[in-house]
Each structure stands twice: as structure tokens, then as C-alpha cells.
Amino acid sequence: GEDVEQSLFLSVREGDSSVINCTYTDSSSTYLYWYKQEPGAGLQLLTYIFSNMDMKQDQRLTVLLNKKDKHLSLRIADTQTGDSAIYFCAGLNSGNTPLVFGKGTRLSVIA
Amino acid sequence: ETGVTQTPRHLVMGMTNKKSLKCEQHLGHNAMYWYKQSAKKPLELMFVYNFKEQTENNSVPSRFSPECPNSSHLFLHLHTLQPEDSALYLCASSQVGEVFYGYTFGSGTRLTVV
Q: Where are the beta strands (DSSP E) in A14-68?
């Protein structure tokens, strides 16, 4: 089955860029997602990318996918204090099996 | 109400109590999920319901009992829980066959077993 790995912590200064990395094992993953969890809340879908794409940009968010290395990253430009949260990477294959999540990366933004 | 609503937001129960968690989705989705989120552990999938039929039970102890009476409602019945069951329980829904948007999550129920 799918296994998703993420580093647990990242600390950046306000205004800098943040890069959160994720590796996955299932090469048949068709859809890859980034979710954000703020304190006391559920998971909110931030962005997604299909496996036939290498990059996707959505305002301050840039997703990069390296299928050869099974590596996914999320870049947040001009990071703000409101971006402080836990970010989860998740993968889904075309068989509609349930999403598999990583442990999440806790992003701390220092003012 | 829109999205996925979970009640209660917080629950404290003794090990001999029986309680239920409720989830309701207003998105017209046809699949619903229970996840458990514990400190320092990945999100653990507990149960999946597609079109009201349970399609996955990931070796969850029998003290957790799900119920899906219709495609909009999902319950998790709890009885004789252990302190290690204390966690955030998240409900999610999706439209099977349209995975483009992933899952929509509720805000969760924070459960404390004393």
C-alpha cells in the first residue's frame, strides 16, 4: 500500500518562502493533495496535482511533482503568520482507495 | 449549513460510558470516512462507507462501532473505551468517481477518555 513521508517541523521567517517536502511510495498514485490543518480544526484542501503534471501554481502556492523520485513539494511564497499550521501530503490512486496521509509538517512562521 | 458538520466538538467520557459521535455532510457526496488523529501518529483511516455500505474496516477494535443510516449521516458509537483512544476523530466525505476535489473534512470531535 501507499506510504507517505514528511519532515515533521519547519520554521521560517515572515516574508520568506517555505518549502514543505513529501515522498510517497506508490507509483500508481494518480492524485496528490496538500491539506492544511489549523489548531482545533479539521483538514482543509489547499491544492492538488495530477500525476501527469510536473508543476501547478495557485497564487502563493506552487506544487512540484517529481514522479521519478516520487517526491512532492509545496512552496509558499511570502509566508505569513496565518500560514502557521500543519500541512499534510496525501496520495490517491485511480482505484479510488482511500487517501493515505503523511504525518504532517508543522510550519511555524516567526514574525 | 454547508460542508461537513461534526458534533460534539469536545467529549469527555469514562471508560464505562457509551457515547456516539455524529457527522453530517451537506455536499451530496456518496462516500464518508472516519479518521483518528493521535499525537505523533499519522492520520489513521478507521472506516469507509461508499453508498451507505461499509467497504473498509482497518482492524479497528470492536469498541468502535460505525453506523451509516443514509448517505448524509455517519455515526461512531463508542463503548468501554480505553485512555489510549483519546484523540481527534475526523469525519470526511467525498464523491466517489470524482476524486478531483479530494475529501472534505469536518472540524473533528476531540475525545478524552478518563
A: 18-24, 29-37, 43-50, 55-58, 61-66
* Nearest-CA distance B41 → chain A (Å): 6
Pairing of strands B109-113, B53-57: unpaired
Taken in order A20, A25, A29, A35, the sign of the CA dihedral is negative
Phi, psi of A89 (to 5 degrees): -95, 145
Could you tell me the CA-to-CA distances from A95 to B26, B45, B92 in Å, in that order?
Answer: 25, 17, 18
Q: Which one of B56, B96, B105 has the shortest CB-CB distance to A42?
A: B105
Say how far apart CA B45 and CA B31 lie, in whole Å: 14
Q: Cell numbers at residue A37, please?
A: 490543518
A 8-67 residues with CB < 8 A to B: 30-31, 33, 35, 40-45, 48
- Cβ-based contacts under 8 A for chains A and B: 55
Across B76-104, b (16+ Cβ under 10 Å) vs e yields: bebeebeeebbbbbbbbbbeeeebeebbb
User: B82: which 3 cell numbers?
Assistant: 480505553
Give residue-wise pLDDT tens across range B101-111.
789 999 999 99
In chain A (111 residues long), the average pLDDT of successive 10-residue segments reads: 86 97 85 91 91 93 94 97 95 73 94 89
